[in-house]
Amino acid sequence: RIGDLLMTLPALAELRAAFPAATVDLVVGSWNEPLAGLLNIVDSVQTLDAPWLARGHPNGGYLELVRRARSWRADRYDLALNFEGDIRSNLLVALSGAPRRAGFGIKGGAAFLTERGSYDRGAHVAVNAGRLVDTVLARPSTSVAPGDQPILDPSESARRVADELLEHAREPLIGVHASGGRAIKQWDPARFADAARQLVAARGGTVVLTGSREDRAIVDEVKSHITGDTPVIDLTGATDLMALAAVLERLSLFITGDTGPMHLAAAVGTPIVAIFGPSDPVNYGPWMTPTRARVVRVDIWCSPCNQIRRPPTRCVGHMPDCLVGVNVEAVVAAANGLLDARR
Asked: In angstroms, how far is the first alpha carbon of the chain from the final one?
């Protein structure tokens, strides 16, 4: 998904640095094609919508995947890397005909690989992606840490769109992405609204609401809880990924759950307050230094369970306890800390 691609960018940059003259082709889901098109560390981008990742995007099914993978043999690749680690994508890598095939065997399919990266379940996705590249380069894994510089640069045309959308907004710009993407990761929209309202009441500025067209109902609920004297700009469904990246770049602060836009904000260097429930921030938190990102969560006996695709039965149909325990005061305190540091 979007976050997975963004968390892999440091490893792709490491791969490019090691092979500056190589041809590097990147295969992503169609939803990531515009984002991948920004990368100057790859030579071309191909799209392939795997059914287990597509989530609403049309795909040709498993036979089409096999056909596409076999077609890669014509390109005579020397090396194929699979950062995902699923047994099905490991099979596709094997069908490509590349003599060297590197990936993770954590979800099966290790026999399809010639080189297996050491996957640390207690490490961030970006760290494990870097470890896989280190395996290919036959060197010891280095201790990878996020830097202070953005790793993604929005296009100038996207920045012009962002300038138009935010033309009448007064700073600070408090971004809010209320949709959790999945019900199991959904914090209360009323709490998002309360946090944003308190920040603007204390500091002035404008609330900037982001989301896709599918997020309209959640965003409307947030708006219904924001008082009429709080300036709000609603960008729900108004931006593509490129323009969203440029909008996020302009924000003073971004409040979100564990979402793709969270990782996009991290990639462009925007300070983030990330609200985590069932997913583990050690694995999936914003890839930023602690001075620019704060994770807000609570410790209860079962969290973080990381059971996102198949949540426990007791957590289905309502906000899970690990998110119920995250209060507005903690989010506002984290936001004020980041805004004070930025100022």
From this structure: 33
C-alpha angle 37/39/40, rounded to 5°?
120
The phi-psi region of residue 312 (left if phi > 0; otherwise alpha if psi is between -120 and 50; otherwise beta) is beta
Q: 3-class SS at 37?
A: coil
Residue found under tokens 């602060």:
253
Q: Read out DSSP for 270-319?
A: --EEEE-SSS-HHHHS-SS-TTTEEEE----TT------SS--GGGTTS-
What is the DSSP code (8-state) at residue 75?
A: G
Structure tokens given for 72: 């890669």
> Six-digit token pair at 141?
């894994």
> For residue range 160-182, what is the model confidence (pLDDT) as tens digits?
999 999 999 999 999 999 999 99
Distance CA 207, CA 197 (A): 8
Instruction: Decide: 240 and 214 in contact? Cβ < 8 Å.
Output: no
